[in-house]
Amino acid sequence: MPAVNRLPSGRRTAALGALALTGALLAAAPAAQAAPAAPSSGPAAATAPTALPTPTGDGAKSICKRLPSTEGHLAKALNRLNGDATVAGSVTRLEQRVANAKAAGHTEVETYLNGRLTARKALVGTLKSRQDDLKSVATWCAAHSQGAGQGTGQGTGQGTGQGTGK
Fold it and tell me: pTM for the complete prediction?
């Protein structure tokens, strides 16, 4: 019995076109994957040095504008870290978990939690240092009439009048 083509002419052409396209894509894909890329070439390497413009200032206006929220974030984090054993994320709570793991004989868990405890205690010192740094930044912002640093109760209150609307 002779082979009979049961597809209409338009569908046959579309099916052959799709088959040819699929074959071309599959043939090109391994070649593209097999070609090693040079580490210093390509579009990422060409755009990386020009991705950001060079800074023209130190960002003081933005820092002063964000000062109250930054102080709030630091205070909230320090309150959490310095909380008692009932506060999630506190150093005391993690110390209790280390003691519980030691009492249960879970040495691997105790080692893991001790590593976290060391990092968390170091974080307290880092955040306190940043809090002290922000106090001097707030003083600078108030002295130079920069943004939200005026709202901290420091300075003379003699600003330019700009940016005080809500």
Answer: 0.55
